[in-house]
């Protein structure tokens, strides 16, 4: 044992062993179980012990426990490591919400969105600066008939008609041109069945709101006399038949004819009913026979287009010859034509007529979206409910404006019509007659067209308030004025299809020996063109001239052998 000696200054001497002062020095006593002393600790160990903090934080302890568990069960827990990592990240960012799904932004298909205003804004400077194109009104006819004039194949009969098989009474629904379809079909059916046609009755419609009768729009006497040798026409049903039905034709048996019915249906189903004869014994034992009267309502599209030529003859005769407008309409219409020819004297009296279908009811029915925003949306919902209650809100009915536009079912806007005509070569000085009802959007919608064609005219511009007063409250009579001016134009442009342009195309060919020009734009192609952000004026003009040429080829029809 190593001992140290010292003096206890006043308090006694103390003796402390080195082993007591230094615990690292241990002495083996004889009775100890250890046979050898332990080695001294290393200096590094001593330093580490001296630098260790006195205690750990609570977070450190939790981390140590979690790490221990992971290390012990690492094989199982590592399978969930990605989920744990993502959860921790979301928790850290305070966005640990798993309800929201991913948002996918898809660009609409090219041509499915109305972007014509953007195209006009991009091309406007080039349009205004384009003075190189000659006016198409003077060069529109690419083909010449070389002095050979087409002649109508319809010749009025001179013979005497056989005894009538009975009376047919039809009710025409719709506006002016749908009613015109009913009349032409009724003449064809009556001629085919050798029946007597009663002057058609016009239904009052909530859209057109026109109470006009047949004689208010057409020259009734002229209609009857023109058809006299081909089809019997009377203005009323005979007295003895009216008495039979209590003077109410709605009591007459009504045939529900399916749309586009073939001529065989009228032969096999309608004619037998028409031929039924009944006898009635009166108190004085006088027996007389009477032919049955049948009523067909509605009758707009109740005869197939695929009819024999002999039946088509009746249709052609009715539309192109017998249906002459009543004198007030005819006189005012001819006045408007004279004014248009006088205004366009610099083009030898040639003008372009455009049938523009951008009235509120047409925009609503098309189910297309334009640039009117929320106001347009509310207007269209109200217009659909007002005109076609419940039709567009039926369960399962889905409205797809983009698909409608891609399929060419959206009506062309005034702006688009202006771009098309300028692209086809009609310059700023061209006189245009616009056949249309009140344009949806008013001046805001019409301004671009007037900028491109300042010489544009309408019946309201050409006629005074006093001149239009007898017609203004009647939509069918106003449409008849448009029909007359379009009939005598050099070029007719249709923008939406329907009965109006179809009647005009045939009527114009009939009157002018085949010499008529109709432009029918390809709206499917136009939808994609107007939606192209890289569209140039040069490229657009090229496409429009191709489209105009295509209209030429469609308009040039072969004569029958």
Automatic annotation (TrEMBL):
Q: This protein is called what?
A: O-fucosyltransferase family protein
Q: Name one GO cellular component term.
A: Golgi apparatus
Region span, Disordered: 1-55
Q: Write down the species.
A: Brassica napus
Pfam families given in the database record: O-FucT
Asked if Zinc is a keyword of the record, the answer is no
User: Known InterPro entries for this protein?
Assistant: FucosylTrfase_pln, GDP-Fuc_O-FucTrfase
User: Which UniProt keywords are given for this protein, alphabetically ordered?
Assistant: Carbohydrate metabolism, Fucose metabolism, Glycosyltransferase, Membrane, Transferase, Transmembrane, Transmembrane helix
Q: Which domain of life is it from?
A: Eukaryota
* Molecular function, one GO term: glycosyltransferase activity
Family as reported in the entry's similarity comment: Belongs to the glycosyltransferase GT106 family.
Q: Any transmembrane segments, and where?
A: 77-94
Name a single GO biological process: fucose metabolic process
Question: Composition bias, kind Low complexity: at what positions?
Answer: 44-55
